[in-house]
Amino acid sequence: MEQLQTLRGMVDLLPEAIGSWQQLESKAREHFRRACVKEIRTPLLEATELFARGIGEATDVVGKEMYSFADRGDRSCTLRPEGTACVVRAAIQHGLLSQGPQRLWYGGPMFRYERPQAGRQRQFHQIGLEFLGFEGANSDVEAITIAWDFLLDLGLTNLKLEINSLGTATDRLNYRAALVGWLEQHKHQLDADSQARLNINPLRILDSKNPQTRELLLDAPSLSDALGEESGKRFDLVKEGLSALQIPFVVNPRLVRGLDYYGHTAFEIISTDLGAQATVCGGGRYNGLVEQLGGPSTPCIGWAMGLERLVLLLKAVDEQSEAAPVVYVVSQGAMAESMALFAARELRQAGHTVELDHSGAGFSKQLKRASRSKANWAVLIGETEAQSGQFQLKNLNTNTSSLVDQFQLIKLLEC
Ligand code: ATP
Ligand code: MG
Is 298 in the pocket of ligand 1 (CB under 6 A)? Predict the structure, then answer.
């Protein structure tokens, strides 16, 4: 029979890989907790209209990448490709916005039908932060700072923060006219995708990954020249705020975000240690989205990080922190085995990480497994030890053994 396999772009996370995921998730939780950001969990499946309205029909995500299908009641459903629209829907639906500004975070799988490659999957994982009801430039600075400090705390280096301002809707309209005018003159030099975008979503051309188009765009009119005075002032405040916190950044006037709902601050955090898929965090301000989804006018800023890309970066860091047991319990014989269960339980209740060998194999075999497990200690219980209640405690780093009373075990391991 042919073996069943995961679908293309869908990835199993096997036990050996889980260490870095748990490390990431718990660190993220800790950073959100310290910043008083509350978790929200929304369904993986939403009405297709949410994303069509929330992200924009002309984006790659909605146009090409969504997993959409009709359910048995013939409703068009979509596996969420991103979290922001879902969080905003939930906030509107449950009246969270009438309770004052909300600092929220989410985490979990997202689905996009893309070409899989390193750091790009069809089911991937994000954590994201959304500040709903925050207007001032300082909230942009706080949101970026939380992302930056989390990444630093993971031990990541070679990170680059790029920021830009997309200004107001009017600024973007003015710029759009200037950009389209310029692009029309260079149309024949654009790649096919960018040519197609020229009339639907010209700003997205700035986001093109085609090297020739990127080169050409170096001479295109810059969004910063089209920024109105107020937008410029606001952008200055964000830059000053980051500088005051000594968070290094570069202004990238070509930075536009893939989704339609951004205005004013847009930013990305890029790792120079990753290949083509270098962006680990992307975000920005989306003041129009809540209204677009039927809620009250609400200024917002948020970001999302791709965990697969962080895990790739963390591989080296993770190897040292692999959750090895501290104690490996070896036993032989019925009475010894039940005492081993008892000892393991007590040690775990005292907070130790304990692996229990159930093989019933000879001591030397079990001990070999103990050293392979990277535990620091092995506890040996044979018939004699079971009778006397005196267990052998072996230090696996120094290969020295001593006899210890079963009730003294916990105390000894604590020192
Ligand atoms: P990219 O330009 O890499 O496609 P994006 O602009 O589509 O990114 P966002 O929608 O801003 O990405 O999502 C935020 C983050 O989620 C990205 O910076 C990236 O780290 C991660 N991400 C996005 N799509 C994928 C994917 N298909 N597989 C793995 N991670 C992804
Ligand atoms: Mg993308």
Answer: no
Strand pairing report for 76-79 and 102-111: unpaired
The domain total for the chain is: 2
What is the domain extent for residue 359? 327-413
Q: How far is the CA of 358 from the centre of ligand 1 (A)?
A: 44
CA distance 305 to 105: 11
Q: How confident is the model at residue 182, as a pLDDT?
A: 92
Q: How far is the CA of 109 from the centre of ligand 2 (A)?
A: 15
pTM for this predicted structure: 0.84
Ligand that comes closest to the CA of residue 115: 1
- Co-location of 53 and 148 in the same domain: yes
Edge-to-edge strand list for the sheet holding 67-70: 45-47, 76-79, 67-70
The HSE-up count of residue 208 (CA atoms within 13 Å, CB side) is: 23
Report which DSSP code applies to 287. Answer: T
Average confidence (pLDDT) per 10 residues, the chain, 415 residues: 95 91 94 96 98 85 93 98 97 97 98 94 98 96 96 91 94 89 90 85 84 89 90 97 96 80 92 85 95 95 96 69 78 93 90 89 93 92 94 93 88 69
Helix (H, G, I), strand (E, B) or coil at 34: helix
Give me the sheet containing 123-132, strands edge to edge: 38-39, 102-111, 123-132, 300-306, 279-285, 263-271, 159-165, 250-251
Pick from 283, 316, 349: which residue ends a domain?
A: 316
User: Is residue 157 located within the same domain as residue 298?
Assistant: yes
Any alpha helices (H) in 202-331, and if so which ranges?
Answer: 211-217, 223-226, 229-244, 289-292, 307-321
Q: Looking at residue 251, what is its pLDDT? A: 95
Pocket test for ligand 1, best of 124, 151, 161, 214 (most atoms within 8 A of CB): 124
Residues 332 and 273 in one domain: no
Ligand nearest to the CA of 113: 1
Spatial distance between the Cα atoms of 231 and 166, rounded to a whole number of angstroms: 8
Nearest CA owner, ligand 1 atom 16: 306
Q: Is 114 in the pocket of ligand 1 (CB under 6 A)?
A: yes
> How big is the chain, counted in residues?
415
Q: Residue 260: nearest ligand to its CA?
A: 1
Query: Domain of 136: which CATH number?
Result: 3.30.930.10
For residue 301, being part of any structural domain is answered with yes
Cα angle 168, 171, 173 (rounded to 5 degrees) comes to 110
